Structures are given as structure tokens and as C-alpha cells.
Amino acid sequence: MNKKKSLRPPFKLCGKEIAAGTRDFVELEVAALYDMTTISIPIEVIHGKEEGPTLFISAAIHGDEINGVEIIKRLRRHSALRSIKGTLILVPIVNVFGYNAKSRYLPDRRDLNRSFPGSVKGSLAGRMAYLFMKEVVSRCQYGIDLHTAAINRNNFPQLRADMGDEATEELVSSFGAPVVVHSRLRDGSLREAARKEGVKILLFEGGEALRFDDKTIKMGVHGCLGVLEHVGMIRRRRKKAAEANKRVFFAKGSSWIRAPKSGSYYSNKKLGEIISKGEAIAEITDPYGRVVDTVKALQEGVIVGLSSLPLVNQGDAIFHIAYFEDKEDLEDFEDNYDEDA
Predict the structure, then answer these.
(1) Same domain, 189 and 304
(2) Which of these three, 233, 250, 267, is where a domain ends?
């Protein structure tokens, strides 16, 4: 007689049990407003019938970075999640205070992504960070944190990761973002705190604050699915030939080009465009339209971030440039990710 496989134990979060083979919503209570209205972090848990890894996907740690919220909305409806192995924890809005105020920060102007791992008796930011680490991050083996550029900036879709770890490098390749920028761990960041907990984590950047960018959102959805497939949580997907042939380009470094003078700047350069060393990439003008200085590229590279605010003070960051090992990488990048591709 064949015995039926016993179901996995339920996943428990905030006093709720999510049975194997089901999905449910959970409210992680963090604090209350002045009028005693309860504020909670919305979470969806998809608990598969079969054993597998536990992975979280989070967005809006900075409350005005909303592309990630839309990525999770679309991802959760994908048919591949119907037969998931392991447990997927979706957290579309971590910084609920900032999200409702259309602000990057918490009410006390603290940056939640500089407050990890937090403290049970600390500031509001510290307590939120501690709760998120305890209830979500520490229970996972993998994580994907979704971001956009800060206000008045725009980012080309990219991954930020510490490339000193082989397993993380494999995750990066499975995500398939056009550019990977090696980024050291920053004190107080979710990435740093997760790494100390032994969680392999990626940070995806793309688009602007308080704006939806459909191309970036689609890339984020495909990237998350690629990681879920790589770690064995979903079945292998059919890939379009164009998608399968795209390469991931690893930048050897990156830096900002800053305004040499104050004024208003004009440039016809776009995200993802290749620039040459010494090339004039922007002009800075005074209120009469007279050119007061020219911004030149310091090295050959790809524009992965730029200011969307034309008014600049001397020293303001304008262009974020990723640099590659050799010219062939740049030529291949142009072939793989030209604007019409």
C-alpha cells in the first residue's frame, strides 16, 4: 500500500499558521499613530507543499521607492508560484510610514536602511528593523531587496552585491540584470544585517522614486523568477531566445561625476549609454544661457545613474558611471542592451 506523503508543518508568523500548500496574508504590527491607529507591515506567505528554501522579497524600505511594490504585485500573480517548493515571504511595503507619506524616511527623518539590525528598545526605526529581522529575515536562507534611485535621480536597472562570495555570484547571474555593480556592505543596511545572519541577499535598483517604470518592473519580475528557479523553488520556465542570450555584465567599479560649477545642466545622454574618456557629456549654464563649464567623462563606461533635476550646485552628483575591464565588454553590452532591444 502506498502511503501518502505527509504535509510539511505550517509556517507560523505573528500568531497565524499558514498550512502547507496554501498562502495567506499576515499583518506585522509595528506601532501606532497619534490617534492610536495601528500601523502594520503587510506580508504574504506562500507555503509550499514540498520542502525547499525560505526566501523573502522586500520593497519600499525607502517609502518613496515604489517600483518594487509593483514588482511584488505582479510577481505574486504569476502562475509559477502555484506549485512552489519551500516558503516565499513577500513584503511589498516595509517602511509603511514613509510609503503613506510619500517619503524616503520615517517620521523622525531616520533612514530605515541605516538602522539594521535594530534594537527592541531603540528608536522607531531601530524597533522596526529589529522586528523585520526577527520575524522575516532571520527565518530565510535567501533574500531580494527591491529599490529605485533616490528622489531626483534615475537608475538604469542593476544589481548591487558583494561579489566576494561564490554563491551570491551565482544568484546574481540567475537574476539576469544588465549590470552588476560590486557594492560593499554599508553599516546599518539590510544587506549587512542579513549577511551577518547567513542570508544570501541581492539588491535590485532601477527607475526613479515615486514613479513606475514598466521596463524596470518587468525586469524585476523576471529577475525574481530567475532566482526562485535557481534555488529550486519553482519549475524551470521557458525562456525567450532573446532573454536566454542576454549576458550579465559585471562592473569592476563605479563612481559619480560631479558638477564642477553651480547652475543648470543640460545633457542628451541617457541611462545605459556608453561614454568615452574625455567626452563632453553635459553643459552647465548660468541664468542667461551662457555656458559656465563643460562636464567631461573621466573614464570610458556606462551611465547607470543620473540626476533628473537640472539645477545643480557645485559638487552635486550628476552621472553615476560603471566601469568595465576592457573595451570588448562595452561593445558586447551595447549589442545586448541597446535601447531598441
Answers:
(1) no
(2) 250
pTM for the model: 0.93
* Residues 267 and 307 grouped into a single domain: yes
319 part of a folded domain: yes
Q: Where are the beta strands (DSSP E) in 114-266?
A: 142-147, 153-161, 179-182, 200-207, 249-251, 253-258, 263-266
pLDDT of residue 242: 47
Residue ranges, the chain, pLDDT below 70: 1-6, 236-246, 334-335, 337-341
In sequence order, what are the residues at sequence separation of 6 or more whose Cβ sits closer than 8 angstroms to the Cβ of residue 47? 8, 10, 11, 18, 19, 20, 21, 22, 23, 87
Residue 340: per-residue pLDDT: 40
DSSP letter assigned to residue 122:
S
Cell for 45? 506567505
- Rounded Cα distance between 26 and 44, Å, is 6
The identity of residue 341, as a single letter, is A
For residue 84, being part of any structural domain is answered with: yes
